[in-house]
Amino acid sequence: MPEARLALAQATVHLAMAPKSNTVITGIDAAMADVRAGAVGEIPAHLRYGRYAGARELGNAIGCRYPHRIPEGVFEQQYPPDALVGRDCYRPTRHGEEHVLHERLIRLRRAVRGKET
Description:
Helix content is 37%, strand content 0%. It is built from 3 helices and no strands.
């Protein structure tokens, strides 16, 4: 497709030059192992779709907060099912450039989980 040629070339170069890590595959493997083991759960009620008759009576969408409306873009709110709270499949290391992701993820997880930074 001629209209996508430049975008695809730029994406290819970017991905080829990006730092690589095996923690991505270990994270995917851990998540897949959870699914195979049945370690799943219900979507938290506040994140469930709530724009249909009877949704409120089921508790759906009550208390959901939209992080894009605040400057920080992140705040305390439960996203995983109860059974998976605190389960971290992706664990970046401190090797190479990955240390930046490691530090950022620590801050994000603390904010979302309501722990002091």
